[in-house]
Amino acid sequence: MKKIFDKITAILALYVFASSGFSPVKAQTGVNSPYSRYGIGMLSDQSTGITRSMGGIGAGFRNPNTLNLKNPASYSDIDTLTFVADLGFTLQNGNFSENDVRLNAHNAYISHMAMQFRILPKVGMTVGFMPFSNVGYNYSNQELIRRDEDGEITATNSYFGTGGIRQFMAGFGWRTTEWLSLGMNASYISGDITHYVSNTYSSSDVQSRVKTYDAEMAALKLDFGMQGTLKFSKNESLVLGVSFTPSLKLESDTYVADAHSSSDTTVIAAAFSFPDKISTGFTYKWKNHMIGADVSYETWSKATFFGQKTGCDRLSASAGFMFRPDEMSRSLFKRTSYQMGVNFSQPYFNVGDSKGPVQFGVSAGLSMPLTSSYNSMSYIHISGEYVRVQPTVKGMITENYIRINLGVTFMERWFMKLMVD
After folding, report:
1. Residues 269-294: pLDDT tens digits?
2. Which of 158, 341, 355, 400 is the most buried (most CB within 10 A)?
3. Close Cβ partners of 113 (under 8 Å, ≥ 6 residues apart)
């Protein structure tokens, strides 16, 4: 038992350090995207280790002692003897292009922290921390206001934003029968988002203007999941899964302030709400192979951002494949699992009168055992992703991302009773 508390304490300490002002990770929000100005920012994928390199599938993913935060019904698949702790870290290079202008930006951030263990027969529990969305951008443009015999007057419009939403979740998965599992997550989500818009002019005769949009929010989010397993033989099975997240309203302190007028501050009531989300998917496993796919639908057109309904319904799809040559082999590379995946998602926000950009990506990775010890089944996860954010209309920014995802899963049989002759 002492090992459990030591591990939990170490993970919590690392999270607190990463969330503090002393952490280099905190200095970056995880994005440098102008599109994070809209909605609640760039949404996080919320995948872990193996599922991330399989395109982000999760609704039907069920693998013994493997964390899958996208469907809480999968938590029941942990065995009685095992404690699992999972940590993920991402290095990202983004390339932004508009017409002939190109710019690169680098980020590094913790993608998730979670742990899983059995609390009752057929009942597994998972707790974790992860970002829900990130806001980070800083750009400007210049335009000609007037040209006459006295010269030119130009305006510089600057946009800056920071913040994001984080979530702490705890969930249970219950295997009600040999073929059916149910689960639920309860997540406390909180965060702050700030947008600055300034208009400055080359002439001192024209007054500059600075506006601040600021919001602090919190809410309790629930996720429900179900998975059904059909076993055709000892080494062949099909898992069908579905998860549902109901819409919710967030408690928030939200206002819009004008820097040049202390009386010109608008308080926005019921400023933020989140949509319904439903996901369905499957995985088919035979021998050491697995394939799977997910489809998700979110009703963001009913959500509100800073009191306005500027979202659009979002459809997402992903598919992945995993292969392990021989999990019982003494060869490290034969016990390593190899994954690949693809994903696609529509925008969830509008940019003016047009929809935001679509996103598609490809990923590949491997999960390698850290040791061959019988009492330790820990793995290191290494994967790469290419993500393209493609605008739906001309004249908008195209974004290309290369991501290196590093993760480690500590998996140890701490509850095993040894028999001595």
Report:
1. 889 999 999 999 999 999 889 999 99
2. 341
3. 11, 14, 15, 86, 87, 88, 128, 129, 130
